[in-house]
C-alpha cells in the first residue's frame, strides 16, 4: 500500500465552514490498520494520499490525527484516524489535462483461468499506464470460465483499487467484460470496432498508438519454429516516438506551439489465452484491424507471466517515448529562442550602423 487511496464518497468538509477536506477512517479499515500497525504512524505524522475521481485524481500529503473522542494512543486497534490534506484540490480541467498527458495502455485479454484472472486484477492495475482492461472470449477459451466470479465487479473492483494503491496511482481504470454467456460472442472485427480498437486510415500523422498482438501459446502439432516478430519495445518505439508538439517558425512567441499537438503515446495490447490465438484470430487482428505482431522472446509463457512481461516492457517503452518527445520540444524551444536572440542582435547592429 504505497498510496492511501480515497474514494469520492469518503470525503467530507470541515464543519468550520472553511471548505477544507477531511477524511475519517474507521478503526477496522484496512488503511487505518496499515497506517498505525504497519507504518507505525503517530498523531501529527504525514502520509501520502491519493483521491480517485473521474478526472484523473490527484495526490498530496495529509496530516494524521487520531479521530476525536478516541485518543488512547496505546490501544491502536481501537483508534480511527482523520486525514487532513495539506494542499488544495486542483481544478477538474487541470486534472484532466495532466492525466491526458501521460502514456496510456489498453489491455485486451482473452479469458484466462479464473484463479489467474483474480491474481492479475491488482497486478494489471498497479501499472500506472493501464487505463482500460477488456476481457474477451477467444475461440480456445474454456466455456466453463464464463461463470467465474472473477468477472464480476464485486470481485475485481476492490482488487483494482488494491493494485492502484500498490502502484501509487489515481487515474481510474475502465473495465469492459465482453463475455456473454447467452450470446457466446467471440473475437470479431465488429466487436473490436465497437470497442474502438481498430486502426483507421484517416491520414492523421500525429497518431501515437501502437497496436500490438501477442500470442503466448503454441501449436502442439507444429514442429516448425516460425521466425519471431520484432521485440515489443522496438515496435512501440517505432509506432509512438514522434514529436508530440511542433514549433512554427512564424510564431511570435518563443514559447508558443502549433495547434497540431499529438496525443500522449499509447498502446493497445492483445494477449491470448493459455492455448494461444487461432490462425483466424491472428489474421483478424493483424490483417483486418491494424495490429502488429510482437514478441516477448522465444519462451512459451503462461498468461499471467505474459501479461506482466508485456506491461513492463510496453510501459517502459512508452515512458521512453514521452521523454524523447519532451526533450525534442525543449530543444526546439531552445533553438527558436537562440534564433530570436540572434535576429534581435542583428537588427540592433543594423540600427547602430
Automatic annotation (TrEMBL):
GO CC annotations, alphabetized: cytoplasm
Cellular localization per UniProt: Cytoplasm
InterPro entries: Alpha/beta_knot_MTases (IPR029028), RsmE (IPR006700), RsmE_MTase_dom (IPR046886), tRNA_m1G_MTases_N (IPR029026)
Keyword Ribonucleoprotein included in the entry's annotation: no
Domain of life (superkingdom): Eukaryota
Pfam families, A to Z: Methyltrans_RNA
Biased composition (Basic and acidic residues): 333-353
GO biological process, one term: rRNA processing
Main location: cytoplasm
Protein EC: 2.1.1.193
SUPFAM superfamilies: alpha/beta knot
Positions of the Ribosomal RNA small subunit methyltransferase E methyltransferase domain: 250-314
Region (Disordered): 329-353
Catalytic activity: uridine(1498) in 16S rRNA + S-adenosyl-L-methionine = N(3)-methyluridine(1498) in 16S rRNA + S-adenosyl-L-homocysteine + H(+)
Coiled-coil stretches: none
Alphabetical UniProt keywords: Cytoplasm, Methyltransferase, rRNA processing, S-adenosyl-L-methionine, Transferase
GO molecular function: methyltransferase activity
Keyword flag NADP: no
NCBIfam families: RsmE family RNA methyltransferase
Protein family: Belongs to the RNA methyltransferase RsmE family.
Function of the molecule: Specifically methylates the N3 position of the uracil ring of uridine 1498 (m3U1498) in 16S rRNA. Acts on the fully assembled 30S ribosomal subunit.
Protein name as annotated: 16S rRNA (uracil(1498)-N(3))-methyltransferase
Organism (species): Discostella pseudostelligera
